[in-house]
């Protein structure tokens, strides 16, 4: 039996560049793992079956679940090693909100690939696991890598960024809302296709990717310039998701206004003698939607600030019972094997 923690991710940056020949979108993203994890327990079964257990009503337990498909993919690709080893039970203790833009399903698949590589002695390298993961979903390779990374292509090509400061994310999601990722990209294409790079324009594509590699967010992460990290948060999918989901837009506005007042009261309590930039660094750093949403996150420098913001947002939001609010620190790990 093997237990793994599968961490969620947030997008610090998501830029849509154009169409791809495979029908997906060419992206440049900056992804960050946060320590909000599903617990995945893999138990070998004598019979060659795949059994998935999860008591979350929105999580399918059949072949449509990405973790289930991860097992099937390994069995298909490595028949010699997997024939005769029996099957596996995958128990998912769900903590990451579902349909949230936090890569919950992808991280479960990543943990399953990682764990079965150990349980079945497949001897696959991280790169080999990531290549298999890319067949399951665009976010799976990042979930295997963890930490902070630039993701290009469909999102499956991962360039790790060695430095990201220890920040905290307040994550807010309405339980009753989830956004379909295919819908978000399709709607973006309908509205913005005229701005896309032409297909196979590899020179301009490389230039757009290079712009992010040497851009302001990567510099801010590298130098630990926290207010610049907040200023550089960006997500093209907000342009279609926020107008279509007014509640999410309203939630983002609430988080922005709570952040602003939190920052103001904190810098006031520091005394008037502090410089403006020091004062700014005491407050929330920025607020953005993650992935295709509808989770909205606010970044802070300290756990106390994050908890205070979560508390105030909870008090200000009308349907508090529908809102899931969690505080998650940045982490360098995607998948964590439990002792
Ligand atoms: O790869 P994943 O299964 O997460 O993608 C879900 C959907 O999101 C795809 O079927 C596609 O409609 C859209 N998508 C896209 N371009 C990407 C990633 C996802 O259009 N780079």
From TrEMBL:
Database matches in InterPro entries: GHMP_kinase_C_dom, GHMP_kinase_C_sf, GHMP_kinase_N_dom, IspE, Ribosomal_Su5_D2-typ_SF, Ribsml_uS5_D2-typ_fold_subgr
EC nos: 2.7.1.148
Binding residue positions for ATP: 97-107
Enzyme class: transferase
Keyword entries, A-Z: ATP-binding, Isoprene biosynthesis, Kinase, Nucleotide-binding, Transferase
Domain GHMP kinase N-terminal stretches: 65-147
Bilayer-crossing regions: none
Comp. bias intervals (Low complexity): 267-284
Active-site positions on this chain: 9, 139
Superkingdom of origin organism: Bacteria
Catalytic activity annotation: 4-CDP-2-C-methyl-D-erythritol + ATP = 4-CDP-2-C-methyl-D-erythritol 2-phosphate + ADP + H(+)
Coiled coil: none
GO molecular function, one term: 4-(cytidine 5'-diphospho)-2-C-methyl-D-erythritol kinase activity
Renumbered residue ranges of the record's region Disordered: 267-287
GO terms, biological process: isopentenyl diphosphate biosynthetic process, methylerythritol 4-phosphate pathway; terpenoid biosynthetic process
UniProt domain GHMP kinase C-terminal: residue ranges: 282-316
Pathway, per record: Isoprenoid biosynthesis; isopentenyl diphosphate biosynthesis via DXP pathway; isopentenyl diphosphate from 1-deoxy-D-xylulose 5-phosphate: step 3/6
Matches recorded under SUPFAM superfamilies: GHMP Kinase, C-terminal domain (SSF55060), Ribosomal protein S5 domain 2-like (SSF54211)
Annotated function: Catalyzes the phosphorylation of the position 2 hydroxy group of 4-diphosphocytidyl-2C-methyl-D-erythritol.
Protein family according to the UniProt entry: Belongs to the GHMP kinase family. IspE subfamily.
Protein name: 4-diphosphocytidyl-2-C-methyl-D-erythritol kinase
Lineage, highest ranks first: Bacteria, Bacillati, Cyanobacteriota, Cyanophyceae, Leptolyngbyales
């Amino acid at each position: 039996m093997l237990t793994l923690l599968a961490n969620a991710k947030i997008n610090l940056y998501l830029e849509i560049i154009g169409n791809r020949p495979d029908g997906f979108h060419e992206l440049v993203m900056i992804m960050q793992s946060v320590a909000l994890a599903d617990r995945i327990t893999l138990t070998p079964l004598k019979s060659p079956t795949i059994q998935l257990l999860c008591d979350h009503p929105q999580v399918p337990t059949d072949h449509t679940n990405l973790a289930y498909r991860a097992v099937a993919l390994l069995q298909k690709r490595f028949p010699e090693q997997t024939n005769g080893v029996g099957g596996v039970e995958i128990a998912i203790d769900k903590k990451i909100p579902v349909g949230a833009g936090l890569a919950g399903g992808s991280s479960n698949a990543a943990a399953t690939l990682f764990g079965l590589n150990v349980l079945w002695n497949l001897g696959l390298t991280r790169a080999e696991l990531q290549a298999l993961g890319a067949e399951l979903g665009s976010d799976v390779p990042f979930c295997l890598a963890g930490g902070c990374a630039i993701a290009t292509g469909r999102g499956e090509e991962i360039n790790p960024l060695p430095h990201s400061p220890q920040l905290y994310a307040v994550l807010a999601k309405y339980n009753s809302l989830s956004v379909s990722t295919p819908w978000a990209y399709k709607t973006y294409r309908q509205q913005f296709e005229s701005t896309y790079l032409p297909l196979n324009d590899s020179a301009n594509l490389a230039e757009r990717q290079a712009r992010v590699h040497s851009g302001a967010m990567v510099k801010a992460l590298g130098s630990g310039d926290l207010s610049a990290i907040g200023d550089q948060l960006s997500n093209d999918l907000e342009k279609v998701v926020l107008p279509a989901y007014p509640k999410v837009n309203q939630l983002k506005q609430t988080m922005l206004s709570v952040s602003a007042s939190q920052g103001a009261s904190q810098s006031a309590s520091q005394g008037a003698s502090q410089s403006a930039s020091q004062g700014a660094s005491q407050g929330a750093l920025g607020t953005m939607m993650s992935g295709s949403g509808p989770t909205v996150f606010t970044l802070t420098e300290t756990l106390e600030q994050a908890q205070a913001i979560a508390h105030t947002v909870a008090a200000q939001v009308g349907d508090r019972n529908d809102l899931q609010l969690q505080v998650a620190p940045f982490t360098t790990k995607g998948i964590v094997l439990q002792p």
